[in-house]
Amino acid sequence: AVYATTLYSLTEADFDEYVTRPEFREQEKWSHATRAFDVLKTKLAETPMLKHFDVSRESVVIVYASDWAISGVLTQVHDDVYMPVKFTSRTLKPNELNYDIVEKEILALLRDLNECYTMLAGKPVRVLTRHTTLAWLFRSKGLQGRLSQWAAILSPWKLEICRSMRGEEELLGTLAASITPRAFVDAALEEIAPRKRASRIAVI
């Protein structure tokens, strides 16, 4: 899912340029897009088969965030194995690039819950994350700004925030980062990451 975000940044005008003006195909954005598309084809062929959602099984949401994209996966346990039900991802907006890693994982969680709303609404959901500070969001009473808004949005949900344990880390990272082992995800994404810049913050 993360790899596809490079292609999401392309517009209809970009594709028209690619077709009508061959000399523009050597631009950096197209080399990144081509590499991402080639990797994506390979990943799709290797991705585990998605399972149908089973209302009788526990739902586990795994979130992942890199410097420029967020992704998540809804899974359910079948024979002691986490099996994917649905993948979600998107690139970060320029202002979101300034967020810290925990805030980015909250964005990933919000997107996953929104995309899987009809399956998860009213049901308990276990959330696996790399950061225990995500659970702090639900305990703190002095939140302000976007953290306060996010806490309000998440308050109706029955969420259990769990930090992934040793032994789960590689499997969960693999699922959340689209079949690339977490230890190598950030390095792999450097070759295909779109050139986005964080918004500048004016100092007064």
The CATH topology, please?
Ubiquitin-like (UB roll)
Residue fraction in strands:
15-25%
Order of helices and strands: HHHEEEHHEHHEHH
> What is the number of beta strands?
5
Highest-level CATH class: Alpha Beta
Low-pLDDT stretches: 177-181
What about the largest sheet? 5 strands, mixed
Helix content: 40-55%
Number of domains: 1
Helix/sheet category: alpha/beta
Number of helical regions: 9
Question: Span between N and C termini?
Answer: 39 Å
- Overall mean pLDDT score? 77
Radius of gyration, CA atoms, in whole angstroms: 18 Å
* Biggest sheet, spatial arrangement of strands: 3-2-1-4-5
Estimate the global geometry from the Cα principal axes. Answer: globular
CATH architecture level-2 label: Roll
Based on the model shown, name its key terms.
globular; 204 residues; 20% strand; Ubiquitin-like (UB roll); single chain; five-stranded mixed sheet
Short description:
This protein has a single domain, classed as Roll (Ubiquitin-like (UB roll)), CATH 3.10.20. Helices cover 41% and strands 20% of the residues. This is Reverse transcriptase RNase H-like domain-containing protein.
Walk me through the structure:
- This is Reverse transcriptase RNase H-like domain-containing protein.
- One of its GO terms (biological process) is proteolysis.
- The chain has helices at 5-8, 12-20, 28-46, 101-115, 117-120, 133-139, 145-154, 169-176, 182-189, and strands spanning 59-65, 69-78, 81-91, 124-129, 158-163.
- With 204 residues, it is an alpha/beta fold.
- The protein has a five-stranded mixed β-sheet with strand order 3-2-1-4-5, sandwiched between helices.
- A hairpin with a 3-residue loop joins β1 and β2.
- It is globular.
- The termini are far apart.
- The model is unreliable at 177-181 (pLDDT under 50).
